[in-house]
Design brief:
There is one protein chain. The protein is α/β, with parallel strands linked by helices. It folds into two domains: 308 residues, Zn peptidases (Aminopeptidase), CATH 3.40.630; 152 residues, 3-Layer(bba) Sandwich (Glucose Oxidase, domain 1). The protein has twelve helices and 20 strands. Helix 4 links the parallel strand 6 and strand 7. The radius of gyration is 25 Å and the shape is elongated. This is PA domain-containing protein. InterPro entries: M28_fam (IPR045175), PA_dom_sf (IPR046450), Peptidase_M28 (IPR007484). GO terms for molecular function: metalloexopeptidase activity. Keywords: Signal.
Length: 503
């Protein structure tokens, strides 16, 4: 841990600890906890009013979208730690605090990088997306090859040229169009480079433009990962550029020159996991942990959409954050036999970085984690429907845990469960996009509670006023009842023999 992160950690820890400790000093000692039984849960401690209050606070413009690796994420993390201390849970992070610090590494194009086609100056990752950061200097004629069919390519000598291609086609194997599109970027550009092209410029068609509008903002920041990730390695290769469909009218004009002067830089940022614990009551089982998981970050401040530049992330994932605070109140009111461990993972939107780091460097013995219950986007769509990811092979790594979750649903909210989102054939690959995944890869029984995607996903429209708070409360109840059952049963959830994910 470098001196900057340590100093930042001490500062935030001080901010989080000072006021609540002063308040605690004025209170009388709490009465001894009642004897825990598997039947005497504290479901009544989970209140819709608390959940709504907490979510409005966390998803407010004040935190500017809580972007991973920024002061906004750290400020939101301090607020969460303050709420946790007020509830009364023990810190379970580094050095007696609620915080576990880690580095995320950012690789991006420098601001001095330049790109142009003909007389048009294009700002990299603003007017034109650079698919992978690369150091490249190119000056070459631009040739347009239509959709790049063999017949069209047969008419053009691409050697030493920058090649412009209009995107076309659709997936035929059940994957999402987004995954198809990025696979096409990779395969088609590789073929053109083999033929001698020195750069490839993809131009969106109508379906690709929808993906461009929704996802191109991820390129503004560059790439993120944990230090040492292979995905951050800068490969010296010709540039691959992605343009909006409005560029077609001018990009296909003959006689234009493509020029690029791209340079890459890389540096580290601090991010943080927030970790708290409610110790169990059983002399033996309290050494085991039921881990309740979520993430506190979102997409931050970006280019305005309809005049709004703050991606508040109310459903993604202030819903999970508010749910965990409510579940903490229930475990504080009535502890279970096993310990309840709560982890808010930082920088999830950067590639599950906080959960990847915590699962590799847990603050409790790794073997003590008997189950992971993950909350991800739980407050939208039909009020009577939800999904439990990790319940369908090949994603199911514990039938035991799944059966407890299904029983908890029947005992509590009785959601109609949509199993399509958990299938290996689902085009969104939703199972692979949240914080339970690193734990499942380690073989730890893991499930994810979600009400899945919607049209406001990763847009500035994902605001607190759009959340169905009655549904979110029922989702929270379901997650709590599952965790309560796991925390009180003598046997830990059994692991599925032969568990292996499809990718």
């Amino acid at each position: 841990m470098n001196s900057f992160i340590k100093a930042t950690g001490l500062l935030l820890a001080g901010l989080s600890l000072a006021a609540p400790l002063d308040a605690a000093a004025q209170k009388k000692p709490a009465p001894a906890a009642r004897k825990t039984t598997s039947a005497a849960n504290a479901l009544s401690a989970i209140k819709e009013s608390d959940i709504k209050r907490d979510l409005y606070a966390l998803a407010a413009d004040h935190y500017r979208g809580r972007e991973g690796g920024t002061l906004d994420e750290l400020k939101a993390s301090v607020w969460l730690a303050d709420q946790i201390r007020a509830i009364g849970l023990q810190p379970a992070g580094d050095d007696g605090t609620y915080f576990q610090w880690f580095h995320l590494q950012r690789t991006r194009l420098t601001k001095a990088s330049k790109l142009s086609i003909g007389t048009r100056q294009l700002k990299p990752n603003h007017d034109a997306m650079v698919i992978a950061p690369t150091n490249a200097t190119v000056a070459a004629p631009l040739v347009f090859v239509g959709t790049g069919t063999p017949a069209e390519l047969g008419k053009v000598d691409v050697k030493g040229k920058a090649v412009a291609v209009q995107i076309s086609g659709a997936p035929t194997d059940g994957i999402s169009y987004r995954r198809y599109l990025f696979g096409k970027f990779s395969s088609q550009s590789a073929d053109l480079f083999k033929a001698g092209a020195v750069a490839v410029v993809f131009i969106s068609d109508v379906p690709a433009q929808a993906i461009y509008d929704h996802w191109s903002h991820i390129y503004e920041r560059g790439r993120f990962g944990l230090p040492g990730d292979a995905t951050l390695k800068v490969v010296e290769q010709p540039p691959v550029i992605w343009l909006p469909n409005t560029a077609l009218s001018w990009a296909q004009q003959a006689g234009q020159q493509f020029t690029a002067d791209l340079k890459v830089e890389s540096f580290l940022y601090p991010s943080v996991n927030i970790v708290a614990k409610m110790p169990g009551t059983d002399a033996q089982l309290k050494n085991e942990n039921v881990l309740f998981s979520t993430h506190q970050d979102h997409d931050g401040v970006r280019a305005p959409v309809a005049g709004d530049s703050i991606y508040n992330g109310a459903d993604d994932n202030a819903t999970g954050c508010a749910a965990l605070l409510a579940i903490m109140r229930a475990f504080k009111q009535q502890p279970a036999r096993r310990s309840a461990l709560f982890v808010y993972h930082g920088a999830e939107e950067r590639g599950l970085l906080g959960s990847r780091y915590y699962s590799a460097n847990p603050t409790v013995p790794k073997e003590s984690i008997v189950a992971v219950l993950n909350a991800e986007m739980m407050g939208r769509n039909a009020p009577d429907s939800a999904a439990l990811l990790g319940s369908t092979p090949p994603h199911r790594n514990s039938s035991d845990l799944v059966n407890m979750a299904l029983a908890a649903n029947q005992a509590g909210p009785k959601f109609k469960l949509d199993t399509e989102w958990d299938k290996a054939t689902h085009p969104e690959g939703w199972y692979f996009r949240s914080d339970h995944l690193p734990y499942a890869r380690l073989g730890i029984p893991a499930v994810m509670y979600t009400s899945w995607l919607h049209e406001d996903y990763h847009t500035p429209r994902d605001e607190a006023k759009t959340i169905d708070y009655a549904k979110l409360t029922r989702m929270t109840n379901w997650m709590y009842l599952t965790g309560w059952a796991v925390a009180n049963r003598t046997a830990a959830p059994a692991r599925e023999p032969g568990f292996k994910l499809e990718r």
